[in-house]
Amino acid sequence: MKTRYYTAIVCGIAGERHFRGPADPARIARMLLPLARRGPDHEGQWHQGPVALGHRRLSVIDLNPRAHQPLLDPDSGQVLVFNGCIYNYPQLRTQLQERGHRFRTTGDSEVILKAYAEWGEICVERLHGMFAFALWDPRAERLFLARDRLGIKPLYYHQAPDAFRFASNVQALLATKDVDLTLDEVALHHHLSLHAVVPAPHTLLRSIRKLAPGHYLTVDADGTVKEESYWQLDARNPDPARNTEEWVEQVHVELREAVRKRIEISDIPVGVLLSGGLDSSLLVALLAEHGSSPIRTYSIGFEDVGGEAGHEFEYSDAVARHYDTEHHRYFIRNDQLLDRLDEAIGCMSEPMVAQDAAAFFLLAEQVKTDISVVQSGQGADEVFAGYSWYPKMHEEQADGLNAFCRHYLDRTHDEFGGALAPEWIGEDHSRALLAERLECGEDVEFLNAVLRMDATMLITDDPVKRVDNMTMAWGLEARVPYLDHQLVECVAGMPAELKLRDGGKYPLRALARARLPAEVIDRPKGYFPVPALKYVQGPFLDWAREILSRPECLNRRLFRREYLDRLLQDPLRYRTALDGSLLWHAAALECWLQQHVDGISP
Protein backbone atom coordinates (compact mmCIF):
# COMPACT_ATOMS: atom_id res chain seq x y z
CA MET A 1 0.00 0.00 0.00
CA LYS A 2 1.36 3.40 -0.97
CA THR A 3 2.24 5.66 1.95
CA ARG A 4 0.21 8.86 1.89
CA TYR A 5 2.02 12.00 2.91
CA TYR A 6 0.36 15.29 3.72
CA THR A 7 1.83 18.72 3.58
CA ALA A 8 0.77 22.13 4.86
CA ILE A 9 1.28 23.64 1.40
CA VAL A 10 1.66 27.40 1.08
CA CYS A 11 0.29 30.10 3.28
CA GLY A 12 0.89 33.54 4.75
CA ILE A 13 2.60 34.09 8.09
CA ALA A 14 2.96 37.04 10.46
CA GLY A 15 4.12 37.68 13.99
CA GLU A 16 5.46 39.99 16.67
CA ARG A 17 8.08 39.65 19.40
CA HIS A 18 7.63 42.54 21.83
CA PHE A 19 10.52 43.70 24.04
CA ARG A 20 8.70 45.93 26.55
CA GLY A 21 5.41 44.23 27.23
CA PRO A 22 2.86 41.79 25.86
CA ALA A 23 2.37 41.35 22.14
CA ASP A 24 -0.79 42.78 20.62
CA PRO A 25 -3.15 40.18 19.04
CA ALA A 26 -5.17 42.98 17.45
CA ARG A 27 -2.10 44.07 15.53
CA ILE A 28 -1.60 40.52 14.27
CA ALA A 29 -5.22 40.46 13.14
CA ARG A 30 -4.57 43.61 11.08
CA MET A 31 -1.44 42.02 9.60
CA LEU A 32 -3.34 38.91 8.57
CA LEU A 33 -5.86 40.83 6.46
CA PRO A 34 -3.40 41.55 3.59
CA LEU A 35 -2.33 37.90 3.73
CA ALA A 36 -5.84 36.54 3.15
CA ARG A 37 -5.26 35.98 -0.58
CA ARG A 38 -2.22 33.82 0.19
CA GLY A 39 -4.24 31.63 2.55
CA PRO A 40 -7.98 32.01 1.96
CA ASP A 41 -9.16 28.90 3.82
CA HIS A 42 -8.28 29.38 7.48
CA GLU A 43 -6.94 32.00 9.88
CA GLY A 44 -5.17 31.11 13.11
CA GLN A 45 -3.54 33.04 15.94
CA TRP A 46 -1.53 32.17 19.01
CA HIS A 47 -0.25 34.63 21.61
CA GLN A 48 1.44 34.35 24.96
CA GLY A 49 3.24 37.13 26.78
CA PRO A 50 5.63 38.98 24.46
CA VAL A 51 4.92 36.84 21.39
CA ALA A 52 1.99 36.66 18.99
CA LEU A 53 1.93 34.57 15.81
CA GLY A 54 -0.57 34.52 12.96
CA HIS A 55 -1.22 32.26 9.99
CA ARG A 56 -3.38 32.22 6.88
CA ARG A 57 -3.75 28.77 5.39
CA LEU A 58 -4.41 27.45 1.91
CA SER A 59 -6.08 24.08 2.55
CA VAL A 60 -5.28 21.68 -0.23
CA ILE A 61 -5.08 18.37 1.61
CA ASP A 62 -5.04 17.10 5.19
CA LEU A 63 -8.08 19.20 6.02
CA ASN A 64 -8.18 18.03 9.63
CA PRO A 65 -8.03 20.99 12.05
CA ARG A 66 -4.96 19.41 13.65
CA ALA A 67 -2.98 20.74 10.66
CA HIS A 68 -4.01 24.34 11.32
CA GLN A 69 -1.36 26.80 12.41
CA PRO A 70 0.16 28.26 14.52
CA LEU A 71 1.26 24.76 15.49
CA LEU A 72 2.19 24.08 19.12
CA ASP A 73 4.53 21.26 20.16
CA PRO A 74 3.34 20.23 23.63
CA ASP A 75 6.59 18.38 24.32
CA SER A 76 8.85 21.42 23.94
CA GLY A 77 6.37 24.32 24.14
CA GLN A 78 7.67 25.61 20.81
CA VAL A 79 5.25 27.24 18.36
CA LEU A 80 5.57 27.42 14.57
CA VAL A 81 4.13 29.36 11.65
CA PHE A 82 5.29 28.01 8.31
CA ASN A 83 4.89 28.85 4.63
CA GLY A 84 6.10 26.35 2.08
CA CYS A 85 6.69 22.66 1.54
CA ILE A 86 9.45 20.36 2.83
CA TYR A 87 9.97 17.70 0.19
CA ASN A 88 12.15 15.37 2.26
CA TYR A 89 10.03 15.49 5.39
CA PRO A 90 9.03 11.78 5.29
CA GLN A 91 12.69 10.82 5.61
CA LEU A 92 13.27 13.40 8.35
CA ARG A 93 10.19 12.19 10.17
CA THR A 94 11.58 8.64 10.21
CA GLN A 95 14.95 9.84 11.51
CA LEU A 96 13.28 11.84 14.26
CA GLN A 97 11.04 8.98 15.28
CA GLU A 98 14.12 6.78 15.62
CA ARG A 99 15.49 9.42 18.00
CA GLY A 100 12.41 9.17 20.17
CA HIS A 101 10.21 12.01 18.91
CA ARG A 102 6.45 11.46 18.86
CA PHE A 103 4.25 12.93 16.12
CA ARG A 104 0.63 13.97 16.43
CA THR A 105 0.11 15.10 12.82
CA THR A 106 0.98 13.74 9.39
CA GLY A 107 2.36 16.95 7.84
CA ASP A 108 5.69 18.62 7.29
CA SER A 109 5.06 21.47 9.75
CA GLU A 110 5.48 19.28 12.82
CA VAL A 111 8.70 17.86 11.33
CA ILE A 112 10.20 21.37 11.45
CA LEU A 113 9.28 21.67 15.14
CA LYS A 114 10.82 18.32 16.00
CA ALA A 115 13.89 18.99 13.84
CA TYR A 116 14.53 22.23 15.69
CA ALA A 117 14.08 20.47 19.03
CA GLU A 118 16.61 17.85 17.97
CA TRP A 119 19.22 19.84 16.04
CA GLY A 120 18.61 23.48 16.93
CA GLU A 121 19.31 26.23 14.41
CA ILE A 122 21.27 23.98 12.05
CA CYS A 123 18.09 21.98 11.40
CA VAL A 124 17.62 24.17 8.31
CA GLU A 125 20.58 22.45 6.67
CA ARG A 126 18.52 19.25 6.61
CA LEU A 127 15.38 20.78 5.07
CA HIS A 128 14.91 20.33 1.32
CA GLY A 129 12.22 22.45 -0.25
CA MET A 130 10.76 25.93 -0.29
CA PHE A 131 10.09 27.51 3.06
CA ALA A 132 9.86 30.58 5.21
CA PHE A 133 9.01 30.01 8.85
CA ALA A 134 9.17 31.49 12.32
CA LEU A 135 9.52 29.40 15.45
CA TRP A 136 9.12 30.63 19.03
CA ASP A 137 11.36 28.85 21.53
CA PRO A 138 9.99 29.75 25.00
CA ARG A 139 12.82 28.10 26.92
CA ALA A 140 15.47 30.22 25.23
CA GLU A 141 13.04 33.17 24.83
CA ARG A 142 14.18 33.29 21.23
CA LEU A 143 12.35 33.82 17.94
CA PHE A 144 13.95 31.84 15.11
CA LEU A 145 13.23 32.64 11.45
CA ALA A 146 14.56 30.91 8.33
CA ARG A 147 14.25 31.12 4.56
CA ASP A 148 14.99 28.47 1.92
CA ARG A 149 18.24 28.37 -0.02
CA LEU A 150 16.96 30.00 -3.22
CA GLY A 151 14.48 32.39 -1.61
CA ILE A 152 11.43 30.81 -3.21
CA LYS A 153 9.29 31.82 -0.24
CA PRO A 154 9.41 35.43 1.03
CA LEU A 155 10.07 36.69 4.55
CA TYR A 156 9.97 40.41 5.43
CA TYR A 157 10.56 42.06 8.80
CA HIS A 158 10.46 45.39 10.60
CA GLN A 159 12.46 46.18 13.72
CA ALA A 160 10.87 48.90 15.84
CA PRO A 161 12.39 50.15 19.13
CA ASP A 162 9.91 48.10 21.14
CA ALA A 163 9.23 45.10 18.89
CA PHE A 164 10.31 42.89 16.01
CA ARG A 165 7.61 42.02 13.46
CA PHE A 166 7.66 39.77 10.39
CA ALA A 167 5.31 38.74 7.58
CA SER A 168 5.07 37.09 4.17
CA ASN A 169 4.55 40.40 2.39
CA VAL A 170 5.24 44.09 2.82
CA GLN A 171 1.54 44.93 2.92
CA ALA A 172 1.11 43.04 6.20
CA LEU A 173 3.85 45.09 7.84
CA LEU A 174 2.36 48.30 6.48
CA ALA A 175 -0.93 47.31 8.14
CA THR A 176 0.69 47.75 11.57
CA LYS A 177 0.67 51.53 10.96
CA ASP A 178 4.07 51.64 12.65
CA VAL A 179 6.36 51.72 9.60
CA ASP A 180 8.49 54.62 8.39
CA LEU A 181 7.52 55.19 4.73
CA THR A 182 10.80 56.87 3.75
CA LEU A 183 12.25 55.42 0.55
CA ASP A 184 15.59 53.61 0.72
CA GLU A 185 18.23 55.27 -1.47
CA VAL A 186 20.21 52.05 -2.00
CA ALA A 187 17.12 50.03 -2.87
CA LEU A 188 15.93 52.71 -5.28
CA HIS A 189 19.23 52.52 -7.16
CA HIS A 190 18.97 48.74 -7.42
CA HIS A 191 15.32 48.90 -8.46
CA LEU A 192 15.98 51.29 -11.34
CA SER A 193 19.18 49.56 -12.47
CA LEU A 194 18.55 45.81 -12.04
CA HIS A 195 15.06 45.23 -13.51
CA ALA A 196 13.40 46.08 -10.19
CA VAL A 197 15.59 43.58 -8.34
CA VAL A 198 16.26 44.80 -4.79
CA PRO A 199 18.47 42.20 -3.08
CA ALA A 200 18.12 41.41 0.61
CA PRO A 201 18.25 42.90 3.12
CA HIS A 202 16.89 46.04 1.40
CA THR A 203 13.40 46.89 0.24
CA LEU A 204 12.21 50.17 -1.23
CA LEU A 205 11.09 51.22 2.25
CA ARG A 206 13.95 51.99 4.60
CA SER A 207 12.27 50.51 7.66
CA ILE A 208 11.29 47.16 6.08
CA ARG A 209 13.91 44.51 5.46
CA LYS A 210 13.85 40.95 4.13
CA LEU A 211 15.75 37.86 5.13
CA ALA A 212 18.27 36.75 2.53
CA PRO A 213 17.92 33.35 0.84
CA GLY A 214 19.89 30.61 2.57
CA HIS A 215 19.91 32.51 5.87
CA TYR A 216 18.32 32.26 9.28
CA LEU A 217 17.77 34.96 11.87
CA THR A 218 17.39 34.96 15.66
CA VAL A 219 15.71 37.56 17.85
CA ASP A 220 16.61 37.46 21.54
CA ALA A 221 14.79 38.90 24.55
CA ASP A 222 17.03 41.98 24.70
CA GLY A 223 16.24 42.88 21.09
CA THR A 224 19.47 41.51 19.62
CA VAL A 225 18.89 40.43 16.01
CA LYS A 226 21.48 38.13 14.45
CA GLU A 227 21.48 36.82 10.88
CA GLU A 228 23.55 33.82 9.74
CA SER A 229 24.15 32.09 6.40
CA TYR A 230 23.62 28.34 6.31
CA TRP A 231 24.10 27.71 2.56
CA GLN A 232 26.27 29.10 -0.23
CA LEU A 233 26.40 28.00 -3.85
CA ASP A 234 29.75 26.58 -4.93
CA ALA A 235 30.54 27.43 -8.57
CA ARG A 236 34.15 26.28 -8.60
CA ASN A 237 35.40 24.37 -11.62
CA PRO A 238 34.50 20.67 -11.35
CA ASP A 239 36.44 17.51 -12.10
CA PRO A 240 37.54 17.95 -15.74
CA ALA A 241 37.31 14.19 -16.29
CA ARG A 242 33.51 14.31 -16.52
CA ASN A 243 32.44 14.24 -20.17
CA THR A 244 29.41 15.74 -21.88
CA GLU A 245 27.32 12.57 -21.73
CA GLU A 246 27.99 12.23 -18.02
CA TRP A 247 26.98 15.84 -17.40
CA VAL A 248 23.73 15.39 -19.33
CA GLU A 249 22.91 12.17 -17.50
CA GLN A 250 23.58 13.78 -14.12
CA VAL A 251 21.25 16.66 -15.02
CA HIS A 252 18.63 14.12 -16.07
CA VAL A 253 18.91 12.30 -12.74
CA GLU A 254 18.70 15.49 -10.68
CA LEU A 255 15.88 17.10 -12.69
CA ARG A 256 13.83 13.91 -12.76
CA GLU A 257 14.20 13.67 -8.98
CA ALA A 258 13.26 17.34 -8.57
CA VAL A 259 10.06 16.80 -10.55
CA ARG A 260 9.27 13.59 -8.64
CA LYS A 261 9.62 15.24 -5.25
CA ARG A 262 7.23 17.98 -6.24
CA ILE A 263 4.44 15.62 -7.22
CA GLU A 264 4.81 12.81 -4.71
CA ILE A 265 4.65 15.02 -1.62
CA SER A 266 1.05 15.72 -2.51
CA ASP A 267 -2.19 13.82 -2.82
CA ILE A 268 -3.79 16.08 -5.38
CA PRO A 269 -3.30 16.63 -9.14
CA VAL A 270 -0.38 18.84 -10.10
CA GLY A 271 -0.55 20.88 -13.30
CA VAL A 272 2.05 22.71 -15.42
CA LEU A 273 2.11 26.35 -16.49
CA LEU A 274 2.98 25.60 -20.12
CA SER A 275 4.43 28.57 -21.99
CA GLY A 276 5.45 26.53 -25.02
CA GLY A 277 9.14 27.07 -24.29
CA LEU A 278 11.70 24.36 -23.69
CA ASP A 279 11.67 24.56 -19.89
CA SER A 280 7.98 24.09 -19.13
CA SER A 281 7.61 21.63 -22.01
CA LEU A 282 10.37 19.44 -20.57
CA LEU A 283 8.55 19.41 -17.23
CA VAL A 284 5.52 17.95 -19.03
CA ALA A 285 7.77 15.31 -20.58
CA LEU A 286 9.28 14.35 -17.24
CA LEU A 287 5.86 14.17 -15.58
CA ALA A 288 4.81 11.78 -18.33
CA GLU A 289 8.04 9.83 -17.82
CA HIS A 290 7.15 9.55 -14.16
CA GLY A 291 3.76 8.09 -15.07
CA SER A 292 1.58 11.04 -14.09
CA SER A 293 -1.83 10.90 -15.75
CA PRO A 294 -3.71 12.90 -16.64
CA ILE A 295 -1.35 15.87 -16.96
CA ARG A 296 -3.11 19.24 -16.84
CA THR A 297 -1.48 22.12 -18.71
CA TYR A 298 -2.32 25.83 -18.84
CA SER A 299 -1.28 28.54 -21.30
CA ILE A 300 -2.09 32.22 -21.68
CA GLY A 301 -1.81 34.66 -24.57
CA PHE A 302 -2.34 38.35 -25.31
CA GLU A 303 -2.97 40.54 -28.33
CA ASP A 304 -0.12 41.31 -30.71
CA VAL A 305 1.34 44.82 -30.46
CA GLY A 306 4.09 46.53 -32.46
CA GLY A 307 4.51 43.52 -34.72
CA GLU A 308 5.33 41.27 -31.75
CA ALA A 309 3.25 38.17 -31.08
CA GLY A 310 1.42 38.10 -27.79
CA HIS A 311 1.22 34.34 -27.45
CA GLU A 312 3.08 31.11 -28.21
CA PHE A 313 0.08 28.82 -28.52
CA GLU A 314 1.51 27.01 -31.56
CA TYR A 315 4.27 25.59 -29.35
CA SER A 316 2.23 24.90 -26.22
CA ASP A 317 -0.44 23.23 -28.37
CA ALA A 318 2.22 20.99 -29.94
CA VAL A 319 3.40 19.79 -26.53
CA ALA A 320 -0.16 19.30 -25.30
CA ARG A 321 -0.95 17.15 -28.37
CA HIS A 322 2.30 15.20 -28.05
CA TYR A 323 1.49 14.16 -24.47
CA ASP A 324 -2.31 14.25 -24.76
CA THR A 325 -2.60 16.59 -21.79
CA GLU A 326 -5.77 18.15 -20.46
CA HIS A 327 -4.89 21.50 -21.95
CA HIS A 328 -6.43 24.88 -21.16
CA ARG A 329 -5.77 28.02 -23.21
CA TYR A 330 -6.69 31.51 -22.07
CA PHE A 331 -6.61 34.56 -24.33
CA ILE A 332 -6.67 38.01 -22.73
CA ARG A 333 -7.66 41.10 -24.70
CA ASN A 334 -5.70 44.28 -24.08
CA ASP A 335 -8.72 46.02 -22.57
CA GLN A 336 -9.02 43.17 -20.06
CA LEU A 337 -5.32 43.46 -19.23
CA LEU A 338 -5.60 47.21 -18.72
CA ASP A 339 -8.64 46.82 -16.47
CA ARG A 340 -6.70 44.48 -14.17
CA LEU A 341 -3.28 46.13 -14.26
CA ASP A 342 -3.63 48.20 -11.07
CA GLU A 343 -4.96 45.14 -9.25
CA ALA A 344 -1.97 43.05 -10.34
CA ILE A 345 0.48 45.75 -9.24
CA GLY A 346 -1.35 46.03 -5.92
CA CYS A 347 -0.69 42.33 -5.23
CA MET A 348 3.07 42.76 -5.56
CA SER A 349 4.95 42.66 -2.26
CA GLU A 350 7.45 44.97 -3.95
CA PRO A 351 7.06 46.75 -7.28
CA MET A 352 8.07 44.61 -10.27
CA VAL A 353 8.49 45.63 -13.90
CA ALA A 354 8.76 42.29 -15.73
CA GLN A 355 5.99 42.27 -18.33
CA ASP A 356 4.94 38.75 -17.47
CA ALA A 357 4.03 39.61 -13.86
CA ALA A 358 0.59 40.66 -15.06
CA ALA A 359 0.43 37.56 -17.24
CA PHE A 360 1.08 35.27 -14.28
CA PHE A 361 -1.54 37.16 -12.27
CA LEU A 362 -4.25 36.64 -14.88
CA LEU A 363 -3.18 33.08 -15.66
CA ALA A 364 -3.19 32.09 -11.98
CA GLU A 365 -6.73 33.44 -11.60
CA GLN A 366 -7.94 31.04 -14.28
CA VAL A 367 -5.83 28.06 -13.23
CA LYS A 368 -7.04 28.27 -9.63
CA THR A 369 -10.57 27.48 -10.77
CA ASP A 370 -9.31 24.07 -11.87
CA ILE A 371 -6.35 23.13 -9.66
CA SER A 372 -4.39 24.31 -6.60
CA VAL A 373 -0.79 23.22 -7.32
CA VAL A 374 1.26 23.73 -10.50
CA GLN A 375 4.83 23.27 -11.63
CA SER A 376 6.56 26.13 -13.41
CA GLY A 377 9.75 26.45 -15.44
CA GLN A 378 11.20 29.47 -13.64
CA GLY A 379 14.94 29.38 -13.05
CA ALA A 380 16.04 27.25 -15.99
CA ASP A 381 17.35 30.19 -18.01
CA GLU A 382 19.41 31.53 -15.11
CA VAL A 383 20.76 28.13 -14.05
CA PHE A 384 21.51 26.78 -17.55
CA ALA A 385 22.50 30.07 -19.31
CA GLY A 386 19.51 30.44 -21.60
CA TYR A 387 19.34 34.20 -22.09
CA SER A 388 20.80 36.05 -25.07
CA TRP A 389 23.10 38.19 -22.96
CA TYR A 390 25.04 35.27 -21.48
CA PRO A 391 27.07 34.46 -24.65
CA LYS A 392 27.95 38.16 -24.97
CA MET A 393 29.20 38.28 -21.38
CA HIS A 394 31.17 35.08 -21.92
CA GLU A 395 32.82 36.44 -25.06
CA GLU A 396 33.71 39.66 -23.24
CA GLN A 397 34.71 38.04 -19.94
CA ALA A 398 38.07 39.79 -19.94
CA ASP A 399 36.08 42.98 -19.35
CA GLY A 400 34.28 41.31 -16.43
CA LEU A 401 32.06 43.70 -14.51
CA ASN A 402 31.93 46.18 -17.39
CA ALA A 403 30.64 43.47 -19.71
CA PHE A 404 27.90 42.53 -17.28
CA CYS A 405 26.80 46.13 -16.80
CA ARG A 406 26.87 46.84 -20.53
CA HIS A 407 24.49 44.01 -21.38
CA TYR A 408 22.25 43.95 -18.33
CA LEU A 409 21.67 47.26 -16.55
CA ASP A 410 18.49 49.20 -17.25
CA ARG A 411 20.33 52.44 -16.46
CA THR A 412 23.94 53.36 -15.94
CA HIS A 413 24.67 55.50 -12.90
CA ASP A 414 24.82 58.57 -15.15
CA GLU A 415 21.44 57.72 -16.61
CA PHE A 416 20.11 57.17 -13.10
CA GLY A 417 21.25 60.69 -12.25
CA GLY A 418 19.47 62.07 -15.28
CA ALA A 419 16.20 60.38 -14.35
CA LEU A 420 15.85 61.21 -10.65
CA ALA A 421 15.65 64.44 -8.72
CA PRO A 422 19.05 65.56 -7.32
CA GLU A 423 18.23 64.67 -3.70
CA TRP A 424 18.03 60.98 -4.65
CA ILE A 425 21.43 60.82 -6.31
CA GLY A 426 24.18 59.21 -4.26
CA GLU A 427 26.75 56.46 -4.76
CA ASP A 428 26.71 53.93 -7.59
CA HIS A 429 25.25 51.31 -5.26
CA SER A 430 24.39 48.79 -7.96
CA ARG A 431 27.86 48.64 -9.47
CA ALA A 432 29.40 48.24 -6.01
CA LEU A 433 27.03 45.36 -5.27
CA LEU A 434 27.74 43.65 -8.58
CA ALA A 435 31.50 44.00 -8.10
CA GLU A 436 31.21 42.23 -4.77
CA ARG A 437 28.96 39.42 -6.03
CA LEU A 438 30.92 38.80 -9.24
CA GLU A 439 34.24 38.27 -7.46
CA CYS A 440 35.19 34.83 -8.77
CA GLY A 441 38.90 34.01 -8.33
CA GLU A 442 40.93 31.74 -10.58
CA ASP A 443 38.88 28.61 -9.89
CA VAL A 444 35.52 30.03 -11.08
CA GLU A 445 34.72 30.93 -14.68
CA PHE A 446 33.34 34.44 -15.11
CA LEU A 447 30.03 33.25 -16.60
CA ASN A 448 29.60 30.77 -13.77
CA ALA A 449 30.12 33.64 -11.33
CA VAL A 450 27.36 35.52 -13.18
CA LEU A 451 25.05 32.51 -13.02
CA ARG A 452 25.84 32.00 -9.33
CA MET A 453 24.84 35.59 -8.67
CA ASP A 454 21.69 35.16 -10.76
CA ALA A 455 20.65 32.02 -8.90
CA THR A 456 21.32 33.38 -5.43
CA MET A 457 20.35 37.03 -5.81
CA LEU A 458 18.83 38.31 -9.06
CA ILE A 459 16.46 35.40 -9.65
CA THR A 460 15.09 35.65 -6.09
CA ASP A 461 13.78 39.16 -6.59
CA ASP A 462 12.66 38.87 -10.19
CA PRO A 463 11.18 35.63 -11.58
CA VAL A 464 10.89 33.80 -8.26
CA LYS A 465 9.19 36.70 -6.48
CA ARG A 466 7.02 37.30 -9.51
CA VAL A 467 5.71 33.75 -9.57
CA ASP A 468 5.16 33.59 -5.80
CA ASN A 469 3.33 36.92 -5.61
CA MET A 470 1.16 36.47 -8.66
CA THR A 471 0.12 32.85 -8.04
CA MET A 472 -0.37 33.30 -4.31
CA ALA A 473 -2.64 36.27 -5.05
CA TRP A 474 -5.13 33.56 -6.00
CA GLY A 475 -4.15 30.89 -3.46
CA LEU A 476 -2.34 28.87 -6.15
CA GLU A 477 0.91 27.14 -5.24
CA ALA A 478 3.67 27.17 -7.86
CA ARG A 479 6.53 24.70 -7.50
CA VAL A 480 9.79 25.30 -9.36
CA PRO A 481 11.80 22.11 -10.03
CA TYR A 482 14.63 23.95 -11.82
CA LEU A 483 15.38 25.66 -8.51
CA ASP A 484 15.77 22.45 -6.57
CA HIS A 485 18.96 23.27 -4.68
CA GLN A 486 20.56 19.90 -5.45
CA LEU A 487 20.01 20.45 -9.18
CA VAL A 488 21.37 23.99 -8.93
CA GLU A 489 24.45 22.70 -7.07
CA CYS A 490 24.99 20.07 -9.77
CA VAL A 491 24.95 22.62 -12.58
CA ALA A 492 26.76 25.53 -10.86
CA GLY A 493 30.26 24.36 -11.75
CA MET A 494 29.43 22.86 -15.14
CA PRO A 495 31.76 24.28 -17.82
CA ALA A 496 30.26 27.45 -19.24
CA GLU A 497 30.89 26.33 -22.80
CA LEU A 498 28.72 23.27 -22.25
CA LYS A 499 25.81 25.36 -20.96
CA LEU A 500 26.12 27.78 -23.89
CA ARG A 501 26.38 25.15 -26.62
CA ASP A 502 23.68 25.15 -29.33
CA GLY A 503 22.19 28.47 -28.27
CA GLY A 504 22.22 27.86 -24.52
CA LYS A 505 20.77 25.33 -22.09
CA TYR A 506 22.51 22.49 -23.94
CA PRO A 507 21.88 19.80 -21.26
CA LEU A 508 18.15 20.54 -21.32
CA ARG A 509 18.07 20.52 -25.12
CA ALA A 510 19.90 17.19 -25.13
CA LEU A 511 17.34 15.72 -22.74
CA ALA A 512 14.49 17.10 -24.82
CA ARG A 513 15.62 15.50 -28.11
CA ALA A 514 13.94 12.19 -27.40
CA ARG A 515 11.00 13.71 -25.56
CA LEU A 516 9.65 16.82 -27.31
CA PRO A 517 8.63 17.92 -30.81
CA ALA A 518 11.60 19.35 -32.70
CA GLU A 519 9.87 22.68 -33.33
CA VAL A 520 9.74 23.30 -29.56
CA ILE A 521 13.42 22.43 -29.03
CA ASP A 522 14.89 24.32 -31.98
CA ARG A 523 12.69 27.42 -31.90
CA PRO A 524 14.32 30.80 -31.17
CA LYS A 525 14.44 31.73 -27.51
CA GLY A 526 11.03 33.03 -26.49
CA TYR A 527 9.74 34.94 -23.49
CA PHE A 528 6.38 35.19 -21.78
CA PRO A 529 5.14 37.94 -24.13
CA VAL A 530 2.94 40.81 -23.00
CA PRO A 531 3.62 43.25 -25.86
CA ALA A 532 1.23 45.93 -24.58
CA LEU A 533 3.61 46.52 -21.65
CA LYS A 534 6.68 46.50 -23.89
CA TYR A 535 5.30 48.95 -26.44
CA VAL A 536 3.33 51.41 -24.32
CA GLN A 537 0.78 52.90 -26.71
CA GLY A 538 -2.87 53.96 -26.89
CA PRO A 539 -4.84 53.29 -23.68
CA PHE A 540 -1.70 52.00 -21.94
CA LEU A 541 0.05 55.28 -22.68
CA ASP A 542 -2.98 57.11 -21.28
CA TRP A 543 -2.77 54.93 -18.15
CA ALA A 544 0.91 55.78 -17.68
CA ARG A 545 0.33 59.50 -18.27
CA GLU A 546 -2.48 59.59 -15.70
CA ILE A 547 -0.38 57.74 -13.07
CA LEU A 548 2.62 60.01 -13.62
CA SER A 549 0.53 63.19 -13.54
CA ARG A 550 -1.21 62.63 -10.20
CA PRO A 551 -0.42 65.04 -7.35
CA GLU A 552 1.14 62.18 -5.39
CA CYS A 553 3.73 61.66 -8.12
CA LEU A 554 4.39 65.38 -8.53
CA ASN A 555 4.72 65.94 -4.78
CA ARG A 556 7.03 62.96 -4.31
CA ARG A 557 9.59 64.57 -6.63
CA LEU A 558 11.22 61.23 -7.25
CA PHE A 559 11.68 61.53 -11.02
CA ARG A 560 12.75 64.69 -12.79
CA ARG A 561 9.67 66.09 -14.50
CA GLU A 562 11.51 66.70 -17.76
CA TYR A 563 12.59 63.05 -17.77
CA LEU A 564 9.00 61.81 -17.43
CA ASP A 565 7.87 64.23 -20.12
CA ARG A 566 10.47 62.77 -22.53
CA LEU A 567 9.26 59.23 -21.84
CA LEU A 568 5.63 60.21 -22.35
CA GLN A 569 6.43 62.13 -25.51
CA ASP A 570 8.19 59.22 -27.25
CA PRO A 571 7.80 55.99 -25.26
CA LEU A 572 9.07 53.71 -28.03
CA ARG A 573 12.40 55.52 -28.14
CA TYR A 574 13.46 55.07 -24.53
CA ARG A 575 14.40 51.43 -24.00
CA THR A 576 16.55 49.42 -21.63
CA ALA A 577 19.57 47.35 -22.70
CA LEU A 578 17.24 44.33 -22.76
CA ASP A 579 14.59 46.19 -24.81
CA GLY A 580 12.19 46.95 -21.98
CA SER A 581 10.12 50.12 -21.75
CA LEU A 582 11.51 52.78 -19.41
CA LEU A 583 8.06 54.39 -19.34
CA TRP A 584 6.44 51.16 -18.12
CA HIS A 585 9.14 50.88 -15.45
CA ALA A 586 8.46 54.38 -14.13
CA ALA A 587 4.68 54.04 -14.23
CA ALA A 588 4.68 50.63 -12.52
CA LEU A 589 6.86 51.96 -9.69
CA GLU A 590 4.65 55.01 -9.20
CA CYS A 591 1.48 52.93 -9.33
CA TRP A 592 2.80 50.68 -6.53
CA LEU A 593 3.91 53.64 -4.41
CA GLN A 594 0.57 55.37 -4.82
CA GLN A 595 -1.29 52.27 -3.67
CA HIS A 596 0.92 51.27 -0.76
CA VAL A 597 2.72 54.40 0.40
CA ASP A 598 0.16 57.06 -0.50
CA GLY A 599 -2.84 54.81 0.10
CA ILE A 600 -4.65 55.21 -3.22
CA SER A 601 -6.77 52.14 -3.96
CA PRO A 602 -6.61 50.74 -7.49
Provide a descriptive summary of the structure in words.
The chain is globular. The strands form 3 sheets. Strands 2-3-1-9-8-10 form a 6-stranded antiparallel sheet. Strands 4-5-6-7-11-12 form a 6-stranded antiparallel sheet. By secondary structure, the chain is an alpha+beta fold. The longest helix has 21 residues. It starts with 10 loop residues before the first strand and ends in a 6-residue tail after the last helix. A hairpin with a 5-residue loop joins strand 11 and strand 12. It has 26 helices and 17 strands.
The span between the termini is 52 Å
Radius of gyration: 23 Å
Strand order of the largest sheet: 2-3-1-9-8-10
Helix content: 40-55%
Q: Can you tell me the overall shape?
A: globular
- Residues in β-strands, percent: 15-25%
Put simply, the count of helices is 26
Mean pLDDT, nearest integer?
92
Which helices and strands occur, and which strands form pairs?
Elements: E1 11-18, H1 25-32, E2 42-48, E3 51-57, E4 71-72, E5 79-86, H2 89-98, H3 108-119, E6 129-137, E7 142-147, E8 156-159, E9 163-167, H4 170-174, H5 185-193, E10 209-210, E11 215-219, E12 225-229, H6 244-264, E13 271-273, H7 278-290, E14 296-302, H8 313-323, E15 326-332, H9 334-346, H10 356-367, E16 373-375, H11 380-384, H12 389-395, H13 400-408, H14 413-419, H15 429-437, H16 446-458, H17 460-472, E17 477-479, H18 485-492, H19 496-500, H20 506-512, H21 518-521, H22 531-534, H23 538-549, H24 551-556, H25 561-569, H26 582-596
Parallel strand pairs: 13-14, 13-16, 14-15, 16-17
Antiparallel strand pairs: 1-3, 1-9, 2-3, 4-5, 5-6, 6-7, 7-11, 8-9, 8-10, 11-12
